[in-house]
Structures are given as C-alpha cells and as structure tokens.
C-alpha cells in the first residue's frame, strides 16, 4: 500500500509529467531507476546519509544518471534525495505508474498456466481480456505445473480461476456434500 509520502510525491510528479507530455517516459524511467537502487542498496545509504551535502547528492545522481534519463526525472531524483525521500522512490514510482495506467486505460493482469502460452494463445487471451475489461491489457505470465491445466487470471483483487485443479476441488466438495 502506498503511503502518504508516496502519494503526495507521485501526484505532484504526475501533474508535472502530464503537463510536459512525458508521463510515460518519466514513469518508465523511475521504475528502471528504482530497480537500480534496489539492486544497489549502498546508493540509498549514501543519498540518505546526513553527512552528505545536498550538492554532493545532486552531483552523484548527475554522474550516474545524467544524460541517461530525462531532465525532469533527474531533477525529481535530486529533489527526493535532498528532501530525504529517496528511500520512498520505489513506492513513488509504483504510485506514478498506477496513476499513468489509470489515465491511459491500462490494466495489468497476471496469467498463470501449466505451460507457457503460445503466441496465438497469448494474443487470443489478451484480446478477450481487453474486450471484457474495455482497457489495454499488460500481461505478466507465470507457469505452475501443479495446476494440471486451464488458466488463472489475476487482476488486482479479482481472480478468474479456470484451472483444472480448482474445478476438480469444486467437484470433490460437491460430491462430499451430496454423500454427507
């Protein structure tokens, strides 16, 4: 769950990026930078250290990301570091992506199958989900050999479970209820 700090910073950046017409770019850049930070925890430590001046934080961020990300994203990183909010970067980036996806009518779903989907299956499933939800779908695929077959689609708090295992479990429960 996104805290109030993440919400405030992401909403401010959202408004700025929207005004600039760079919402998609900045959102993706912050997700990527957040990944870099999570792989290199020392960056958080350095940028959070009270002994490191704001100028040194800005110079460090510029030396790492300057010319590799947009000026707006870099300025935001510098602001977050100088305001002591760099450890909130992951939450801010996720909240910004959520705002962007809502704005652009994008929905993330996770599709779990027993084996990887073929290109034709993937395309057909994506088209059906887009028709069902009326939004552009971004699918993340997982495999689970314990499913036996079928598909499970998870979207936020909603799960569409068409797995063979669940169908068998439901039949087992119904039979027990009939026999009992």
Task: Characterize the largest beta sheet: strand count, sense, and whether it forms a barrel.
Answer: 4 strands, mixed
Q: How far from one another are the termini? A: 43 Å
SSE order, one letter for each helix or strand:
HHHHHHEHEEEH
Output the radius of gyration. Answer: 22 Å
Please tally the β strands and state the result. Answer: 4
Count of individual domains: 2
Task: Give the topology.
Layout: H1 4-20, H2 23-39, H3 41-48, H4 54-65, H5 71-82, H6 89-104, E1 106-113, H7 119-133, E2 136-143, E3 150-155, E4 158-163, H8 164-179
Parallel strand pairs: 1-2
Antiparallel strand pairs: 1-3, 3-4
Helix pairs in contact: 1-6, 2-6, 4-5
Kindly summarize this structure in a few lines.
The protein contains eight helices and four strands; from the N terminus they run ααααααβαβββα.
């Amino acid at each position: 769950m996104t805290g109030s700090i993440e919400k405030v910073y992401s909403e401010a950046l959202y408004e700025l990026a929207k005004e600039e017409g760079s919402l998609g770019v900045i959102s993706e850049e912050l997700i990527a930078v957040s990944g870099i930070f999570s792989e290199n925890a020392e960056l958080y430590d350095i940028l959070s250290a009270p002994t490191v001046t704001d100028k040194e934080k800005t110079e460090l961020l510029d030396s790492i990301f300057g010319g590799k990300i947009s000026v707006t994203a870099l300025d935001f990183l510098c602001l977050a570091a100088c305001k002591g909010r760099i450890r909130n970067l992951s939450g801010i980036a996720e909240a910004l992506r959520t705002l962007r996806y809502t704005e652009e009518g994008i929905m993330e779903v996770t599709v779990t199958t027993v084996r990887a989907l073929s290109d034709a299956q993937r395309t057909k499933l994506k088209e059906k989900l887009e028709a069902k939800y009326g939004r552009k779908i971004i699918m993340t695929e997982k495999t689970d050999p314990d499913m036996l077959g079928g598909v499970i689609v998870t979207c936020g708090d909603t799960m569409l479970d068409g797995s063979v295992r669940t169908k068998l479990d439901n039949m087992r429960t119904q039979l027990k209820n009939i026999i009992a």
